[in-house]
Write a structure and sequence with these properties.
Shape: flat
Largest sheet: none
Number of helices: 3
Order of helices and strands: HHH
Distance between the termini: 24 Å
Oligomer: single chain
Number of strands: 0
Helix content: over 70%
Strand content: under 5%
Structural class: mainly alpha
Length: about 70
């Protein structure tokens, strides 16, 4: 279902506030903010891969079979 205009505006404002907060945390340097976010995404991707490797294959197989 598409978002209502008010919901989209609220989300946009929230994102803008988050952008301002990240830049402020990086001493007002947007390049430093982007660099920090790229590093954070890399860390999160590593954690996701580690989690995927640690999930029991039997558990995953059972969950996939029940969705069919």
């Amino acid at each position: 279902m598409p978002q209502k205009p008010a919901e989209t505006l609220k989300l946009t404002r929230s994102i803008e506030l988050d952008v301002e907060a990240v830049i402020a945390l990086c001493e007002g340097d947007p390049r430093k903010a982007v660099r920090s976010l790229i590093a954070l995404v890399a860390v999160l991707n590593q954690e996701l891969e580690r989690s995927r490797r640690n999930v029991s294959r039997g558990y995953v197989r059972k969950r996939l079979a029940s969705k069919r």
